[in-house]
Every structure is written in C-alpha cells, then in structure tokens.
Amino acid sequence: xxxxxxxxxxxxxxxxxxxxxxxxxxxxxxxxxxxxxxxxxxxxxxxxxxxxxxxxxxxxxxxxxxxxxxxxxxxxxxxxxxxxxxxxxxxxxxxxxxxxxxxxxxxxxxxxxxxxxxxxxxxxxxxxxxxxxxxxxxxxxxxxxxxxxxxxxxxxxxxxxxxxxxxxxxxxxxxxxxxxxxxxxxxxxxxxxxxxxxxxxxxxxxxxxxxxxxxxxxxxxxxxxxxxxxxxxxxxxxxxxxxxxxxxxxxxxxxxxxxxxxxxxxxxxxxxxxxxxxxxxxxxxxxxxxxxxxxxxxxxx
Length: 301
Ligand code: MG
Description:
Neuraminidase, four-stranded antiparallel beta sheet, mainly beta
C-alpha cells in the first residue's frame, strides 16, 4: 500500500515516491509530544499514561527511556537554545530542562490558580513560550490526577521566560490543544478538541492573526474542520503547509486551508514533528507507536 493519498498536486510535490512509512518503536499507551534535538540527533516523546518520556537515538535507531517519572508529560518542544520544554499533566506545569539536566518550572498558575493540565507548547522566535491548557490531565486519573479546574476555562497562554510575564492570549476555545506558528509568525494556528466534552462541536484548527506587537492576537477564522476524528498536534513546514494528526491519519493542509493529502497510519495519531539533520523527516506519534516518513519539505523552524 502506498503510504500517501494525494488530493492535490501541491501534496505530490512534497513527496518522495519510493519512500515508505517506517515504524520505529512501539509499546506505548498514548504516545505524544515529539521533539527533536538536532545537536544530539535524538527525538524524545511522551508516553503519557506510562508516566515516561522516551528517546530514539537517530544514529542507531535504539530506543530507551529518557525520563521516568515524567509527571505524565504531554507536549514537548525545543526552545531556540535547544532546551527541552515540557507540558506536565500531573504537576500541572510547564518546565524547561536546562543544559545541565536540572528542571526549571516556567509556569504553574495563572492569577493564583493552578493550570488545568498544559497540553502542547511552541516557542516563538522572541523566546516566548505559548501553550494550551485543556482539562485532559485532570478529567481522570489515567493521564494525570483527577481534579476540578481552578481557572474554570481552557485557555492558551503566552509566557515571557525572561520576565515571567504570563498572559491569556486565547480565551474563546473549548479545549485548545495543538498549536503552531506560520513560518512568518503572523498566524498562530490552534486546534480545538472540545468535541470530547461537547457533542457535535466541530473539530477545528483556528487561525489567529498575530498583532504587530508580536505578543497579542487579533482576528481569527476557521482554518480547517476535521473530517476524521480529532486534530490534536501539528507542525508547519517551510511552505506553510500544516501537517496534522487527524483520526488514524496525518492530514496535510496547504496554507490556504485546502486538504491536499493524507498519510494513513492505522492507529490514532496524536502529534508530529520534523527531525533529522535536514528537518525533512516527519516523526509521527501514533497511539502505541512511533513512526517516521521522509518528505520533500522541511520544518518551518
Ligand atoms: Mg495534544
């Protein structure tokens, strides 16, 4: 079976015809949060219910446990200095793993109230950390510890690590989840998986205009509506395409919102990220397993 379904010629241009989907690791309960470390040529990802962060060594393909316990970590990313930024469900915080291995808490509360359970995170070129805070880590004891939301809403926040300033930048979503900036950082895309709590709510990615100050958001519009399961996590490539989880697939959307192609995975996909020395390898976290596929494109950052 071909690993691609082409809906639009723009997707065909991003493919390498003889390349196959590779399965790299398995044995997870809910794989999420892939993040690539270029200097060390390794990938980490979360296995949320198993309370661990896994590590794939890209040089020899070996897989090991990077951190356990992981505080039921979920989304991960690297900042502009190559440090690991993690969203932790159990401890309801966002942390940074320093170059010496110590862990710094970046934020754990908004206006004196604990976060719900930070889910996914992205770092902008000005070093600010943007993260979503839905309730999945406090909805049950499976991916965290069941609790009532103190904030009473699921927001997206912007944190300035230099000053500690924290702002709620999106307050109009039900369950904001994955997020990514367009290559020029003029748009912030945010998935909403609120259908998990509100039946028949459309599963969407919304595009928010970033204001000229680079810190706040303006007008928003629906960028894409999911036709199969949920959008969860996603990344942008240099062409402005969005590669997103969608049910048991990766969907690719052009910057104009057209669904241009599909990569069937065969189990529920949670998140993706680009890696490899040339950032042309898409790593894919399926429910139990880690996959990858080489593409004719590169990470936006
Ligand atoms: Mg997520």
